[in-house]
Amino acid sequence: SPRSVAVPARQAKGPASPGRGAGDGEDCAVCAEDMGSVLVGRINCNSSHAFCFECIHRWGTQHENSCPLCKDAFTRIDKLVPVPPDAWVGRLLSGDRPGPGGEVYYVGG
């Protein structure tokens, strides 16, 4: 029978490094505000930088879609929703997979 295992949710880190994104007390490079509790936008520049969604959306329309940090061109902004620090992500472990190689995840606070 399936069993549920709770593991701490991981928050993405700040905007200046590849693979990083929303939250965790990092500041937006455009407005210098803390991104810990706002909707964040990650762009598809070479470094995958992230900023406040509203800031990078406005920046992209005013600066020919060049990243404020690395100046690479970007064509897409992905919205990242902040994860509360006390949230838990649980993974349902089962011999009966829901799909080919799939796992079921849920988020709760």
UniProtKB/TrEMBL annotation:
GO terms for molecular function: zinc ion binding. InterPro entries: Znf_RING, Znf_RING/FYVE/PHD. Keywords: Metal-binding, Zinc, Zinc-finger. The keyword Cell membrane does not apply. Residues 28-71 form the RING-type domain. Signal peptide: none annotated. It comes from the Eukaryota. Residues 1-24 are annotated as: Disordered. This is RING-type domain-containing protein. It comes from Hemiselmis andersenii (Cryptophyte alga).
